[in-house]
Amino acid sequence: MLRISTLLGLGSAACCLTLLAVAQEVPSVQEARPTTALLATDTPSTPTLEWAQWGGDSRRNNTPIATGIPTEWEVGDFDFETGKWDPTNAVNIKWVARLGSQTYGNVVIADGKAFVGTNNSGGWLKRYPSDVDLGCLIAFNAETGKFLWQHSSEKLKTGRVHDWPLQGICCAPLVEGDRLWFVTSRGEVRCLDTEGFYDDENDGPVKDETHTVAREADVIWIFDMMRELGVSQHNMCSCSVTAIGDILLVNTSNGLDESHINLPSPDAPSFIALHKKTGKLLWSDKSPGENILHGQWSSPACGELPGADGAPVMQAIFGGGDGWVYSFDVNGDGEGGAKLLWKFDANPKESKWVLGGRGTRNNIIATPVLYEGLVYVAVGQDPEHGEGVGHLWCIDPSGTGDVSPELAFNAADPSTPIAHKRIQAVVPEEGDLTRPNPLSRAVWHYSEQDLNQDGQIDFEETMHRSCGTVAIRDGVLYISDFSGLFHCLDAATGKVHWTYDMFAAAWGSPLIVEGKVYIGDEDGDVAIFRHSADPAVAMKEDGGERVPYYGEVNMGNSVYSTPIIADNVLYISNRTHLFAIQTEPAAE
């Protein structure tokens, strides 16, 4: 069974210079950063007013600007049969909105609205009672939490192979002005009017007059990837799209069938670009091809990065279901095809894919992050495959061709690299061997580090599988993993500053804001650290144990999504509710 958080970050996983309320400088060269104690110092007076896509903008770095964000709150009480909120004991809660029974989509805030993906257990629409299984994208008023409208994706008749029961919309939408783009669980890219039918206008050519009522979505265009491209998504289609100009970037989620062995559509594209206003296909790429391991649920990143000649190039970065990172010229080749700039194998060549997560080779569910001219991404698997060895990479994007750390050869012809093999790239028993790649653009790699220098690698000194997306500020990087470890590293060197065991798996990604770092876990706890490379600053001692400096706040049930900020309000979803969290004014 697949359950994706952040895409999440699922869960992850997945990403373009979209106009937003906040803009951050992106130098095209690497800049060394100090590794001593750090607190956020880059806080201008103007807060981030909107968080209009996963990661805030196409670079996907969850680091908004805000002030007065609380570190203490109480969510209040709930009737677990009706889901009704009792605010009597709530503290610092602005409003609460009912979602479905399983929520993995990350909320975005734009155009005065909160948009979040979930399932239909909330039963917001009369024509779709709560016992009807749907993928839902719901719009709420960002100031009050009032329900506005819902987009409803009925389940595919093919069942769980393509559209897993009770899994709703697992991605986050992209919003610009009064337009919204997202990927449905049915394998469609849809463009919506953010007003729904509240404006009493049907703005798109997609006509469904029986549903043009105020609580319904207003669809502008639809691109069906299954019908148009022959895509066969595995369990769920989920990608948090991004865009630059009129170019919309999408991971199609093409994957295996229910056997977990056969790939029904090896020639279907994995990565596509659509015209944002019309839904027309601009270019496509099928690079992972027959090497897709399971599914493809990563989301793309996009930004201006140094090219091979040193000049900046607008690069679209995709994480593939084969465990490779791919970079394309965002404009394609001009003839409907993709223009590959470079590719990077994020797994050791001798790692092996074994069904059910029992192997050591991973795909990529996390979203790549662009920071100061470099690309950061971790590998992982379906969270239900459990813990396993993971890898976190920092990649220099100025290369061409295969920029992996190693190349694969066979002893029969040791001078010619061999083609990549899906299950195991290098099989020593068959005469395969590896050599360092002289064109490698790996800046650093983190899988394990002996922090206490005792000659052994402890559990806390290991990077495990993750669908989490990194967050970086002031040269300090944070990431969570499925084993419940929260890692803090130097973004320039990969040196590990500290790790913290949350004792619960984390599917989401960190939020860095106002000198604080927030991360949620499967137990429903949101841990809050000081933003610092020094563990003595980030955490404090309590009974001989290190604990997050500001402690943990429990959200009532599992937090699979990622906290975000917009207009000085903290938004966090647990499985069943969306919370707007804001410091209450002092009593007069």
Keywords:
Outer membrane biogenesis protein BamB; 2 helices; Methylamine Dehydrogenase, Chain H; four-stranded antiparallel β-sheet; mainly beta; 588 residues; 32% strand; signal; 2 domains; Quinoprotein_ADH-like_sf; five-stranded mixed β-sheet
In short:
This protein is an all-beta fold and 588 residues long. It folds into 2 domains: 77-405 and 440-581, YVTN repeat-like/Quinoprotein amine dehydrogenase (Methylamine Dehydrogenase, Chain H, 7 Propeller), CATH 2.130.10.10; 407-438, no CATH class. Keywords: Signal.
What does this structure look like?
Residues 466-527 form the Pyrrolo-quinoline quinone repeat domain. InterPro entries: PQQ_b-propeller_rpt, PQQ_rpt_dom, Quinoprotein_ADH-like_sf, WD40/YVTN_repeat-like_dom_sf. Residues 1-23 form the signal peptide. It comes from Botrimarina hoheduenensis. With 588 residues, this protein is an all-beta fold. The protein folds into 2 domains: 77-405 and 440-581, Methylamine Dehydrogenase, Chain H (7 Propeller); 407-438, no CATH class. The chain has 2 helices and 39 strands. The radius of gyration is 22 Å and the shape is globular.
